[in-house]
Sequence to fold (416 residues):
Amino acid sequence: MNTLEVKIGPVSIGGHAPIVPQTMLNKHTSDIEATLAQAVRVADAGAQLIRITVPTLQDVSHLAEIRRRFRNLGYDVPLVADVHFSSEIAIEAAKVVEKVRINPGNFHPDHAKARERFAEFLEVCKEHGTAIRIGLNHGSLGRYIVDKFGNTPQAMALAAMEWIEMCKAASFYRVVVSLKASNTVVMVEAYRELARLMQESGTVFPLHVGVTEAGNGDSGRIKSAVAISTLLAGGIGDTIRVSLTEAPENEVPVAQYLARRYSKDPSALAPAKLSEREESLLKVACDWGAPLLNHEVDDIPLEDEYLKDEILQACRRRFYKPEYIACPGCGRTMYDLENTFNRVKAATAGFKDVVIAVMGCIVNGPGEMADADYGYVGEGAGKVTLYRKKIPVLRHIPEAEAVEKLVELIRQDRKD
Fold:
């Protein structure tokens, strides 16, 4: 799919540029040293864009200092500010980094005011030559869209098109768009619908593709690979992030593998540093992802039953274990997300036909665990809220007790 080319510092996304692998840091932005060190690690691993959360206005100055030191170390990898809800923070961040990721529908509960704030934000981005990503996730759409169209792939695409049309009306074209979901079927449908709508409109912006809250280990890699590869094989996708609940440098080689596999010029991209097993796993997931998600086949002829089960579950064709949704963590996360997620998986492995979410913060967790039956959401200060669907049922639970309480909740519901 032919798209506009968007320049972000020295990096081009879309047009005839190679697919760009990127990642997001998970240190607190206020911890400048730790965030800078992690930025260096992911840049050395091959990340071509680096996203950093900016949860408060005070963190804009931390972001600026991180960028200054990063450049002084000789790195020119563009930095992306990740901003939720606050147009004020987004406007200030646009003055100090190359790109800002926002969901404009969450700038204000009143849709008309959200549009006003987005228009103000675009003017600042124009002034400073800052690119943006309109990043909408399944489960975190603005109320205006959900009330009008529901929480569907089509609603996601229509919501994105409203903000895209505002950008075009303002003659602002430094735009990348994403529609992520943890559900691979929803994710693929949403991107395909958005690609169709953009083509009909006559202007096609580059697409950032990824499965949000994919989890970790083999499952997270396979889930990301089946969905991302399905889109890339169909010509949809210009930059990719593989979201893993692990150290962000682990995401980069998986993204590099996918980028090289589907790039028109693989030689333009660095080879992925993967183990033989990991590369084999990704190859099989890519081989079978599109046929399964496109409903061209119903089963796959693999002798490795474990790998077969993982791929079929990632494509939502057959479930052999709990389905997990887990965010990768960021500077808003207030607890040890990776270890907690592994504890939750170990404690709940015996359940079937259940979707369990482990989310890093109360800011995004409740909205973005849209498909979950149960949710474990960090509050901060060592406390956790447990959810049944989207309803909080146990609040302010000490972290030391929360996994056990989650298991008790699921067991009690199954008795009832």
Q: What stands out?
A: Residues 123 and 243 are 31 Å apart (CA to CA). The longest helix spans residues 111-128. The longest strand covers residues 391-398.
